[in-house]
Input
Amino acid sequence: MILLFNKPYRVISQFSPAGDKRTLNEFIDIKHVYAAGRLDYESEGLMLLTDDVKLQARLTSPESRKYKTYLVQVEGEPDRKAIMRLQRGVELKEGRSLPARVKKIDPPDWLWERDPPVRYRQHIPTSWLEIQIREGKNRQVRRMTAAVGYPTLRLIRTGIDEWDLQGLQPGEYKIIQDQK
Output
């Protein structure tokens, strides 16, 4: 079984208690499912969970190189040079990131409001990027946009390989069968 979950903002990607922070057990009441990868506390969007240990290992293996798609609101308006740097890969503390698929997009009109909202600065514009990466270093997309001078304000993972968020509001999940 595969469970698709839309992780809300400020929820930890684990079931075990974490002080006063919200965790997956607040939203998912199914026993013996495990996250196939994480999404950091400040990020929102698609997580895959499964009850199949072999599938979990396959999905999280660095060799799988499955594309993950993110909608990223950044501070400022990235120029062509910044986009090209992201596309080629940027230097991170543990080495160069793999090349990414990156394009500017219009603000998503279907996107839910975040609580609390993203900070607003009257004299600093924001813009949106769609970024697809094939690796999963800790806070990678945030560090990539910062490395090219455009800090991430909001990060929503909308897809992992063939699976996407379509039809799921924050905190909702649906169960599908493994089709691979």
Observations:
- The chain has a mean pLDDT of 92.
- Residues 5 and 111 are 16 Å apart (CA to CA).
- The longest strand covers residues 152-160.
- The helical segments are 53-60, 80-88, 140-147.
